[in-house]
Design goal:
Layout lengths: L3 H19 L2 H15 L4 H7 L4 H15 L6 H12 L5 H9 L2 H9 L6 H15 L3 H9 L2 H11 L3 H14 L7 H11 L5 H14 L11 H6 L6 H14 L5 H11 L26 H19 L1 H9 L2 H9 L5 H17 L1 H11 L1 H9 L10 H8 L18
């Protein structure tokens, strides 16, 4: 027989559940407020004690209301937070299973795709998906099997909330680890984020792709045009992450195509040799906003220098791709100082490291300009007149492949 105390607890629970069942939305919102305030961080035993061993009865009501109202509920975030208390409860794996049995994952993913819902609602949905993923590999697979990776990548690319985007990044990173069956899917979905219009999303996607290089045996090929396309971003944080990923990709099969693409960016298609206003007077050069092509050129010039310094093999391959000619073209770009600066710094490395490059650049610049270059590679281009810049921009330096080698130690 149950004790009087136990009977009283059961009556209290039944009264609470009846109150919920008969309450309208405003009243339920208040009940959720009180529940969240009183139960955050509680363990499964503590929740069962609170609900007289009937906590699952309340969870079932929460999930049922979620199924019925997630498309229009005005207190969706509160409802998801309340469910999160159950899913995050220590020793509460059975709550997670009960939630999943009601189709919880599918509902959470659908929430991410509903444009009329608030960012706060979607962020709470991501947090619940993270709790599911934290339960282990088979739960990560459940999310991925329901097109969860694509939904998360789309939300990352379109969200207007930096906090929500960071939560998505953490979740995608989690799905990309300890989940071998779906690692490639996560990787490919992150690549699809790169062309989006949101710089924060680009930055986070690049960061996660860089981390994944270390955990994947054979990473899927990265479309060169998408990888190099982010180099035209005006946001330095995006360019920084792109460069870090390029460095990681140098150990991958994509290296040759990426280096070829970088070399090509140094000489923009359809470039003009000079941008003048009908005169050769440097003072009358037209002032223009830097185009995305020039931003991309400057980023490529910086990248080839960084990559070359990290690997002699990469440096030799770049020389074979006529990168020296491209760097000189970029130095001659009077329309974009950043192109001149980064190209000059990178060119200095090749000149100082490869005698064949030094010989060709010395010949192309002439003794006076070459001396200026060696004396001050960071500023020498500011002393060039338009004619000299035009000569650089139209140079045809061609270093034979058999000479694009570091001198032997004994040589």
């Amino acid at each position: 027989m149950t004790s009087v105390k136990e009977q009283e607890a059961v009556r209290k629970l039944m009264g609470f559940l009846q109150e919920w069942d008969h309450a309208h939305q405003a009243a339920r919102s208040r009940i959720l407020d009180n529940f969240i305030k009183s139960n955050v961080g509680k363990t499964e035993p503590a929740l069962e004690l609170e609900f007289s061993q009937g906590a699952s009865l309340f969870l079932a009501r929460l999930t049922a209301w979620l199924r019925m109202t997630y498309m229009y509920s005005t207190c969706l975030a509160k409802l998801l937070k309340a469910i999160g208390i159950f899913l995050s409860a220590a020793s509460g794996r059975r709550y997670l299973l009960e939630f999943l049995e009601t189709g919880g994952i599918s509902i959470l993913l659908q929430i991410l795709g509903l444009n009329h819902l608030k960012e706060e609602d979607k962020r709470e949905s991501v947090k619940l998906l993270q709790l599911v993923a934290d339960a282990g590999r088979k739960y990560k697979e459940l999310i991925c099997a329901r097109s969860g990776v694509q939904s998360l990548a789309e939300f990352l690319a379109t969200s207007s909330s930096a906090e929500a985007q960071e939560d998505v990044q953490v979740l995608l990173d989690s799905l990309g680890h300890g989940n071998p069956e779906y690692q490639s899917q996560v990787y490919k979905s992150l690549v699809t984020v790169l062309p989006c219009a949101c710089p924060r999303a680009q930055q986070l996607a690049l960061q996660t792709l860089g981390v994944m290089q270390d955990v994947m045996g054979e990473a899927p090929p990265v479309p060169v045009e998408l990888m190099l396309g982010v180099l035209c971003s005006v946001h330095l944080e995006v360019q920084y992450e792109a460069l870090q990923l390029l460095k990681a990709l140098m150990a991958r099969p994509a290296r040759s195509s990426l280096l070829k693409g970088l070399a090509a960016l140094l000489i923009p298609a359809g470039r003009k040799q000079l941008t003048l206003c009908g005169t050769t007077d440097k003072a009358t050069l037209c002032l223009r906003e830097p185009t995305l092509v020039y931003i991309q050129q400057a980023a490529a010039a910086k990248a080839v220098g960084v990559l070359a310094k990290e690997s002699a093999e990469v440096a030799e391959e770049l020389i074979q791709l006529q990168v020296v000619q491209g760097l000189m073209v970029a130095v001659g770009n009077l329309d974009h100082v950043a192109s001149q600066h980064h190209a000059s710094i990178s060119l200095e490395y090749f000149v100082q490291t490869f005698p064949c490059v030094e010989e060709c650049v010395r010949k192309a610049l002439g003794p006076t300009l070459f001396k200026d270059f060696l004396d001050s590679p960071e500023t020498w281009y500011t002393k060039m007149d338009p004619v000299q810049a035009a000569e650089l921009a139209s140079n045809t330096v061609d270093i034979p492949k058999d000479r694009a080698r570091l001198p032997s130690p004994g040589g």
